[in-house]
Amino acid sequence: MTTKPDFYETIAECEKNMKGRKREVLPTNPRYINFKQNIFTAGDEDQFQERRDATNGDICEKEITIPHTNLYNDQSFKVWDKNIDIPATSVINTFRYIFNKFKKGIFVKIKGGKVSVFLPFSKSKFHNEWSSKVEIPQSFKNLDSFLNSKSGKYKYNPKTVNHNMSEWYANNCLVKYDIDSKTQLTKEGDTNVATIKNMFEELCKNREIPDIEFFINRRDFPLITRNGTEPYTGIWGDNTPLVSHNYEKFTPIISMCKTDEYADVLSPTHEDWARTQSKKNHYFTGSCSDYNIKFNTPWNQKKPTAVFRGRSTGCGVTIDTNPRLKIAHISYMEKGDDQLLDAGIIGNWNNRVRKLSGSSYLQNIHIENERYIDSDGKISFGLLKPLSRVEQSGYKYIVNIDGHVSAFRLSMELGMGSVILLVKSNWKMWYSHMLKPYEHFVPVKEDLSDLLSQIQWCRDNDDKCQEIVHNSTVFFNTYIQEEGIFDYLQKTLIDLKKQMGVYLYNTKSPLSHQIESELKSLTLSFPETTKSFSDINEIPYIGRCFGLLQGVHQILNISQQSSFPTNLINNGVLTLTSIIFRNKMGIINKYRLGKKNPFDLVIKRTTDVHKKLEHIHEAFVGTKAINGLLKFIPNFAYTFGLFSDKDGGINLINEFIPGITFFQYLNGKTFNFDEYIFIILQLCMTIETAQHHCSLVHYDLLPWNIILYRPPKPVIIDYIFGGKVVRISTKVIPVIIDYGKSHVIVDGKHHGFIDMFRVSTIQDMLMIMLKSMRIIVENQRINKTDLYTLLSISNFVSNTRYHRDKFTSIISLKNFLKDHTSYTSLISEPKYELEQRTSKDLFYYVLKIAKPRKWKWLNIGTVPVYKSFMDLGNSRQVFEYIMSNSDEERGQSYFNVFSRLKHCTIPQPNNLLLIYYTVQELYHNIETVKEQMVDFLDRTCKKRRYNGNILEPMSRDVYLKAYNNCIDFIERVYRPKILAEKREKPIEYFINGDFSRLIHAPYTEETFLTPDLIVELLSTSDNNSVDLTSYREIVILILKNNGPYQLDRRDKEYYMENFNSLLSTNPLNMQNNVANVNTLYDLSYKVYSNDLSAMDKSCNLSLKFVEEYTRILEIIKTFI
User: Fold this and answer.
1) How far apart are CA 487 and CA 181, in angstroms?
2) Protein kinase domain location, by residue (predicted)?
């Protein structure tokens, strides 16, 4: 995705574009408002993964033979050992290395002879690893005073400086802190990116290039050392081992210069390519430089003087540490009319702040009144006027001296018809190894001690100098023109490819396999009926409960049999009421279902490829895991399913929850701190319950994904929490929505999206707690007491590696929250010891702080028995009620529940515990239907006559008699069984496995790229464990029941002892640890069966992969 062409055919057009670009807002990445690059730039790992094209090329492609005409045919390029025989995982590992340590880079994929991916990336929420190593000089009060002292003639604007040093980034010793004064965001650019992109595109058009993937360094300083140390020596010093992302293998990183200590692969510079293309009248955005210059000054008309003009780049800040300052000083101090040297600094002083090795203090060049001043104040010189390239070519000798790294101008200077005085340097460019002293240039010592004598040598050896100029001109015309660049890159990439070897991506990723299976599982079920969608009429007046939601679900299922939702809309039973939200990714509409007492729905539609996957996953998570939770607690929105439309959209149907979002509440005038704490406590219990039920990790639990529902009157909610029943009375219910990024375990297998297999006990609550706190401290005025409470609660994360210091002030809390509450930070940053804590731990931590305040909101206590106000109603009765066209039919829907029970085959287990469970469930369901029926009869009493007429309900007594007969029937069937089965033996069950701790899956989605690792995991996994958490849940419900069929004291004590081991087992640990093995086997089979079937087996190279895949499948067959 680009906004403008890579180059223009006239300088005027290019310059016009550059001026217009400063005025225009050209966002190419809608997720980040400060990303206004010409070429789409990924701002996070998700965007990189979406666009990197992890697909395979032709494994059996023929080997490319380098033609004998290639200038580099006889040269061999030494490949770093960590670039040899790399696995497929090296790509994402190298991305993370560059992205997280250096912020930006470019990923390139060449496939089928074309650049199939050219993907710049820049980490939007970048945090460096070295801010603790940087200090303000002690002579300055703060950062502003330091920077203001160095601003020179320019007025210092503190709004353009990021005062959070952890968000600075660097280019070795040069630190970058600039931000936009309005948005307070980092300025993101893409200077020279289009030039590099064009170079590789033209390479593929003009040379045979193998399928290959590599990275390009966006900066001039190299990125990776051969010995595994930090590459930015200015920041870290010499030989500091990598503090992070030290992988066994890396995908090659291409840079424009390096020293022998670095493993980067050298490439022609953007300046080299721009120069060659200006001959074709191609002028690249960013510089619009014109290199079509004729250097035709005759030798005898050139000045016998050495010239240098350049900016004060480089790490050093004095003439002793910066050779450019030193050469300017040498020239300034030279006496006499016949000077050997004309050298100076041009433009503005490049007074960027440096961080030098050996010192933690920030430094820069000491400038006063636009003149360099040394520390003693004895040495002083100013800027000189710049000289054009043509003017410089009027000198016989041109000094080339390093700046920050090699001076890229050397390429041009070799063709300017002057002798190059090349200062010795450890830095190398792509052709440096072919340049020979006194053949292509005249060498100068690194410390410039022989500079003047070497210039004098040139004067004394004029004929030799003309020979050197001839040689350098031939070199320039031979090697560093377009054809030479093509030859070099072709040879380099072919040699690299041979050493990198062949690696394969999974033909279909683990996530794709998961999404595919999730989509297949989304079936439409509903009771057998002669009715159709056209009969949809009145929704029962029973309030939000599990039976109502299930019944509406069945109605929507039957409605999808034909042309949904058009059929319902045309029949007047589904009405669009409003557009809730719309953006480029999709639209969210609110609908009303039913002709009377309508039920509100939300339908989210998207055509975006990535969002479609999220919608499918959310439909699965909702229908297969979360919906079942609503039988127990009201804190989630119900999911009704998914449908596709004729225009390629994916539509997700959810329950609409009335109320404002938690985000609106936190920012609004109705915010109440006491109530906020109560909401956090409810969320703790909600997440703990969900994790024990289905191992939920929401991974997007932010304030806009929580709706605050306020019921008409206070409700009582019971949570089975920490082995107790915690009961609350509340006027506000936080309801969680949007499960597209969530993780759950269903049928013993992990189903995740952001992190497919990772379960975290603290992720969600940490996310919502920190994000909500940030909104409060930035937008609400709270009193001192509340502030003290907030600080106390925030110290839940203190004294850990996540945050070592205790929060003692609002400033310290604000600074922490600013750094750690971006989505990327909340998801990706390690939580260290906090991963051992749970939502329950946070609940009791907050409760301990809150209790002494005796808030009126804090209506929380424990009770001996459990009751769910959501577990009401009968879904089939609701389905029949909605399909009814008269009160008689509606009344019949209740009557049918009692009739069906008496005439169907009801379960009659021999196990006493299951007898209890069966009768408890039957009785509870019948009782709640009866209560709803009585309410219905009361509402329709004015229409009903005692004896009943056609199309009118029967007598009230008839309904109640059916109910009483049903209750009597249950009593006759089950009471004798309860009495008869008193002396059964203990129920046997086996807990195999270590569930004392949560064991994180020893694999990620990327592990499936490495078959050898999968073989090892399969061979060592324990596949004998069984997940008994669903049985544990049933046992708890039986034990906590307080109805007429509750266990008597002796039975309860008996079963509590019988199931003590199961009840004391952590259900989340059990689900997770068992799912680790099940998911590994399931996905391994799917992934490698598919890979094997898709494999091109026509060449020897493929045999290795065939053997690996076959071995994996054989191991799995043994398990099955």
Assistant:
1) 46
2) 574-960
Distance CA 201, CA 220 (A): 21
Same domain assignment for residues 264 and 325:
no
Residue 230 CA to residue 673 CA, distance in Å, equals: 46
Say which CATH number the domain at 545 has: 3.30.200.20
List, in sequence order, the alpha helices (H) in 539-626.
546-559, 566-570, 609-621
Whole-number Cα distances in Å, 107 to 116, 212, 412, 488, 797? 11, 11, 28, 20, 37
Query: Would you say residue 590 has pLDDT above 90?
Result: yes
| 475 and 335 belong to one structural domain | yes
Q: Environment class of residue 609 by beta-carbon count within 10 Å: exposed (0-12), middle (13-18) or buried (19+)?
A: exposed
Cα 495 vs. chain centroid, distance in angstroms? 34
Phi, psi of 576 (to 5 degrees): -75, 120
SS3 at position 444? strand
* Band of pLDDT at residue 125, cut at 50, 70 and 90: confident
Q: Is 1024 helix (H, G, I), strand (E, B) or coil?
A: coil
Residue of 873, 752, 769, 858 lying closest to 821 (CA atoms): 769
CA-wise closest residue to 130 among 279, 258, 4, 232: 232
Using pLDDT thresholds of 50, 70 and 90, give the confidence band for residue 933: very high
- CA torsion 1090→1093→1098→1099, rounded to 10°? 30
Of 452, 475, 500, which closes a domain? 500
Boundary residue ending a domain (278, 304, 329) = 278
pLDDT tens digit sequence for 337-388: 889 999 999 988 767 899 999 899 999 888 888 888 887 777 888 999 999 9
CA distance 839 to 681: 9
The answer on 557 and 463 residing in a single domain is: no
Task: Indicate whether 1053 and 1104 sit together in one domain.
Answer: yes
Query: How do residues 208-245 score in pLDDT, each as one tens digit?
Result: 999 999 999 999 999 999 999 999 999 999 999 999 99
Question: Crossing angle, helix 810-820 and helix 763-779, to 10 degrees?
Answer: 130
Name 912's Cβ contacts closer than 8 Å, sequence gap at least 6: 977, 978, 981, 982, 984, 1051
Q: How far apart are CA 318 and CA 530, in angstroms?
A: 91
Q: Which residues does 241 contact at the CB level (< 8 Å), separation at least 6?
A: 228, 229, 230
988: DSSP letter: P
Closest CA to 775 of 667, 674, 638: 667
In sign, the C-alpha dihedral spanning 993, 999, 1005, 1011 is: negative
Say how far apart CA 597 and CA 419 lie, in whole Å: 91
Residues with Cβ within 8 Å of 719's Cβ and at least 6 positions away in sequence, in order, are: 633, 685, 686, 688, 689, 725, 726, 727, 728
How far apart are the C-alpha atoms of 315 and 352, rounded to whole Å? 10
Phi, psi of 156 (to 5 degrees): -75, 130
Token readout for 895 is 């009557």
Assess whether pLDDT exceeds 80 at residue 3: no
Distance CA 1025, CA 1041 (A): 30
β-strands 586-593, 574-583 pairing: antiparallel
Measured CA to CA, the distance from residue 979 to residue 73 in angstroms comes to 93
CA pair distance 344, 333, nearest whole angstrom: 11
Measured from the Cβ of residue 175, the count of other Cβ atoms closer than 10 Å reads 21
- From the number of C-beta atoms within 10 Å of its C-beta (0-12, 13-18, 19+), residue 823 rates as middle
Q: Could you tell me if 643 and 598 are in contact, meaning their C-beta atoms sit under 8 angstroms apart?
A: no
Q: pLDDT for 297-332, tens place per residue?
A: 999 999 999 999 999 999 999 999 999 999 999 999
User: Does residue 565 have a cis peptide bond before it, meaning omega lies within 30 degrees of 0?
Assistant: yes
Give the whole-angstrom CA distance, residue 368 versus residue 372.
7
Which SS3 state, helix, strand or coil, does residue 184 take?
A: coil
Q: Is there a contact between 392 and 307 (Cβ–Cβ < 8 Å)?
A: yes
pTM of the model: 0.89
Q: Which domain holds residue 604?
A: 511-655
